Amino acid sequence: VELMCAATNHEIHAMRAAYERLYHTSLENDLTGDTSGSFRRLLVSLCQGRRSENYMVDHHSAVMDAQALLNAGELRLGTDESTFNSILCTRSYPQLIQIFMEYQRLAGHGIEKAIKSEFSGDIESGLLAIIKSVKDKAAFFAEQLHDSMAGAGTKDRALIRMVAIRSEIDMEDIKRAFHHKYGKTLADFIRDDTSGDYKKCLLAIID
């Protein structure tokens, strides 16, 4: 989920193609079958890989979208999830940053507060993942990596997935963000939380 919420159009299309080659079915079909409700609609929207790649910011549209989000959530009884899906899954990252700024100006608080108030469960986590990755993708993955190792036990599949996929994209940025946020290097965290060849392999990948 964290990878889908933070992926570019190119990465999503590559994931879809690889999934179909491996499993002889579409990623969208399996997402539809394995999830339900609002969360399914969010993942299917993301799976389309239709985020705008126009990186010019339209301030007027940002104000309109911020107002639309406010009207779809905090200013009505019930929540119009389709508006949140449409805007968060299709606007470019720079445009979303401007929308979040306009939302803060209109509502007097960040959009994260609205998401936590209006949604719950997987859909809440998914929408927050999009927002966090838009604001600072390296910090978002640093948090995800930390969460995979924090507490009792290690979420090995999540740890392996994120290390392997981000290793050739932005691992250096993630390592800096991790150290800044947690006061300890990612490598030290991995050394303390894993062992043997598994540890050696992870350390070699992030080096």
TrEMBL record:
The keyword Calcium applies. GO terms for molecular function: calcium ion binding; calcium-dependent phospholipid binding; phosphatidylserine binding. It comes from the Eukaryota. GO terms for cellular component: cytoplasm; nucleus; plasma membrane; vesicle membrane. SUPFAM superfamilies: Annexin. Keywords: Annexin, Calcium, Calcium/phospholipid-binding, Repeat. A pair of annexin repeats may form one binding site for calcium and phospholipid. Belongs to the annexin family. PANTHER family: ANNEXIN (PTHR10502), ANNEXIN B11 (PTHR10502:SF102). This is Annexin. It comes from Homalodisca liturata.
